[in-house]
């Protein structure tokens, strides 16, 4: 772990305001419960379950068909929070929690969501491109879809491992297990869960992992890919909370000189001859020891000006 990552390290408590990991888990869980609730309504109402997928579920998942995707641009975000089965969502959230918690501990609270989104988008781009550009892919773009947080979680896992591959978990077990071993197990389990016929899903998950690695690689070269995403979220937050103070400082609010312990400058009033005469008269009548500090300072400055 380099110096920059060490400086940004801060422990984020689960109950902290704006905890990115908790927010991601909540969004995934709430959307899953909402879709399942609608699914149960279809079942209890004796409605055609195929209509549920046509009218509800398919509007949240990413279509490989570019024409259809052009009319559903929100699926570029919603697909990475959408799950169909209980095991699918539980597995992804457990891995996300494990790697996300470590990543937050190492890099702070402002990297997790950008890595999650960028990993999902990398997976989406590769998934759609493969369906059109690789002739060996079996299914056609008309019916192929992508959903689930797998590519995003893969990005978080690889990013975490890139930051600290020797990070130890479960320290009570013979000094701890290196993080890279946990990541290897995750990658094997993730790829084993993909059907052999869905080669585009393999590549989408690989793209997510590659994005996680590139994010940390660029961050170590002072190129922070999370800035524009965090700035966008702050802009949206300010729209709904106009009175909230901005976290970013404007240039005019920043000091570029040392101001600790003293004012950047001190304004002195102009000393007139009349004012000096008044002080001298006071000395003649009452004595020097009765002058105020301000009057003594005026005399001292007048004497220095005479020296010049």
Ordered list of secondary-structure elements with their pairings:
Layout: H1 3-8, H2 20-44, H3 49-55, E1 62-63, H4 66-70, H5 75-78, H6 86-107, H7 112-133, E2 145-146, H8 150-163, E3 168-169, E4 177-178, H9 179-192, H10 199-219, H11 227-240, H12 273-286, H13 293-307
Antiparallel strand pairs: 1-2, 3-4
- Kindly estimate the percentage of residues that lie in beta strands according to DSSP: under 5%
Separation of termini? 58 Å
The averaged pLDDT comes out at: 81
Strand order of the largest sheet: 1-2
Category by helix and strand content: mainly alpha
Stretches with pLDDT under 50, minimum 5 residues: none
Estimate percent helicity: 55-70%
Question: How many helical elements?
Answer: 13
The radius of gyration over CA amounts to 31 Å
> Largest sheet, described in full?
2 strands, antiparallel
Number of strands: 4
Shape: elongated
Order of helices and strands: HHHEHHHHEHEEHHHHH
């Amino acid at each position: 772990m380099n110096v920059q990552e060490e400086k940004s390290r801060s422990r984020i408590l689960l109950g902290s305001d704006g905890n990115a990991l908790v927010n991601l888990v909540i969004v995934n869980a709430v959307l899953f419960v909402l879709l399942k609730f609608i699914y149960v309504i279809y079942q209890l109402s004796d409605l055609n379950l195929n209509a549920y997928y046509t009218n509800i579920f398919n509007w949240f998942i990413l279509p490989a068909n570019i024409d259809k995707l052009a009319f559903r641009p929100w699926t570029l975000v919603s697909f990475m929070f959408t799950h169909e089965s209980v095991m699918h969502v539980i597995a992804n959230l457990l891995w996300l929690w494990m790697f996300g918690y470590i990543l937050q501990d190492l890099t702070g609270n402002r990297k997790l969501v950008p890595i999650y989104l960028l990993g999902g988008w990398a997976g989406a781009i590769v998934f759609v491109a493969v369906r059109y550009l690789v002739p060996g892919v079996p299914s056609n773009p008309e019916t192929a879809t992508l959903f689930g947080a797998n590519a995003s979680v893969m990005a978080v896992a690889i990013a975490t491992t890139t930051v600290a591959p020797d990070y130890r978990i479960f320290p009570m077990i013979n000094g701890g297990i290196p993080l890279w071993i946990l990541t290897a197990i995750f990658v094997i389990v993730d790829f084993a869960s993909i059907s052999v016929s869905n080669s585009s899903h393999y590549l989408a998950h690989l793209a997510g992992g590659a994005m996680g690695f590139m994010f940390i690689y660029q961050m170590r070269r002072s190129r922070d890919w999370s800035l524009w995403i965090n700035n966008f979220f702050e802009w949206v937050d300010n729209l709904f909370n106009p009175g909230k103070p901005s976290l970013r400082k404007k240039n005019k609010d920043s000091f570029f000189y040392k101001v600790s312990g003293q004012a950047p400058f001190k304004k002195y009033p102009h000393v007139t001859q009349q004012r000096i005469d008044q002080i001298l008269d006071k000395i003649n009548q009452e004595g020097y020891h009765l002058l105020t500090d301000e009057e003594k300072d005026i005399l001292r400055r007048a004497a220095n000006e005479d020296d010049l």
